[in-house]
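Please complete every field before forwarding. Incomplete forms are returned to the sender.

SECTION A: IDENTIFIERS
Entry label: holo-89
Bound molecule: zinc ion
Molecule representation: SMILES string

SECTION B: INPUTS
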Amino acid sequence: MKIIPDEKKLEIIKVLQQKGVNRPCPKCNHNNFTLLDGYFNQVIQPELKGITLSGPAVPSVVTVCTNCGYISQHALGVLGLMPAGEEKK
Ligand SMILES: [Zn+2]
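SECTION C: PREDICTED COMPLEX
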């Protein structure tokens, strides 16, 4: 089952390319990445002790180097890809 529809993936890839996200992997220098079929939504932690599971978060798309598995995240808000009404929750 696909989480991110193909049309949305194409839109994400197009925006990343427009932003100049086209360099090789910073760890192994390979050129092939895959777009994770889903999002990361990391919660901003208000303090260093413990883990907060809800609250302000940074939704992001994730690319993975297909050679070494290096993971890169790109914030949806900066890319202009946040769904309408989701900008400031
Ligand atoms: Zn790599």
